[in-house]
Request: fold
Amino acid sequence: MNVQEYISSGIVEGYVLGLVSDEERNEFEKLCLQYPELLQARTAFELALEKQAMENALSPSADLKDRIFTEINAGGKILPMHTAPVRNLNWLKYAAAACFILLAGSLYWNISLYNKNKSLKSNYDNTVARLNDMEKDIQVLQQNPSVKMASMKGLDVSPQSYATVYWDTTSHDVYLLTNNLPIPASDKQYQLWAIFNGKPVDLGVFDIKKERLLIQAHNAQGAEAFAITLEKKGGSPTPEGTMYVMGKL
Amino acid sequence: MISKTTYSEQELVALLQQRNEKAFGYLYDNYSGALYGIVNSIVTDKEIANDVLQNVFVNIWRKIESYDPSKGRLFTWMLNIARNASIDEIRSKGFRDAQKNQSLGENVDIPGSVTGPVFDDVGLKKVLTKLKTELRILIDMSYFQGFTHEEISRALDIPLGTVKTRIRSALIQLRTMIQ
Reply:
């Protein structure tokens, strides 16, 4: 090719000013490596352009330099570009590890939430069943006009204790509602007594852990009061242990 | 205080690539005026031109690794960043909207401006005034407004081949005018 012709075709100026197509630019860059005179012509035009631009310089705002330095110090130094590829790989590794940990954590969390949910659901079902039973019992008691109620207040040994006795005057059945009694030691049981003329009559032992809080007893006709004592397991013929609650009818 | 130190272009590039702020300060002191002249010839609003120049220098600082000395001088590289940033700005929606409002205002104040804009040419644009109008328009559209040859061909209804030939011819004349 005729280099001089190429040089004077306007390609040099077009290349320097950024007015050529990608194809023309690639060709020009290749030829520059091949022809020193082309490179020389390019440098000459670049220097002329630079000189022309310097002669026509205008002053930007006085504070612009500070603004630029503030901006580059705010973010420019954090990620120098030559280290970026290495950092990117590390970053990806850590990101992948972090994702895995997050995923594992999320799975574990889901499983434990699922289990928790399941146990809550079963507790809830049990509670609903118990509540239904109690409601049925209470309905029986409330709809029956012959039922009397006696609240049994906690005595000195356990002032928070509280129980309720429902007493059917016609059938003579007794229902005990253990609202609040401390859980006894494993070798002890609560025992319910009916008091006739100041003498206690055994109405049986009961476990407060039973699903149904309402306990049915018989033969309480003419009772003037009820009491609960804590006795040895299986009960005693006459009250020996501590009295927890007592209520007069 | 302006530093007395001078750097060769090679030293300057090496220091900039090491993120040397003193070298960057030197670069700003020596070239901000020339680059602002170019930005100002494309973006005429002074406030916006300053914002563009700020972006230009921040980009020079951040992208100095991509500068390849085998493809041209540092100033040429910076000049192209400045030109591209300026053209991006005038082509942005925000800028065009602002200009629309401004020109409405100007039309009220200066009715004569409708018939022909008043040019206050400096720098390269001043050089362009020496070109024949038909060539000048082509350089103005391609260099200062960033239109592709195809866009100019369509806009002026001139065959694409003619656009290319005329731009080449304008560039040849430009060289002799600058030197």
Summary: Residues 127 and 211 of chain A are 9 Å apart (CA to CA). The longest strand of chain A covers residues 188-196. Residues 76-87 of chain A have pLDDT under 50 and may be disordered.
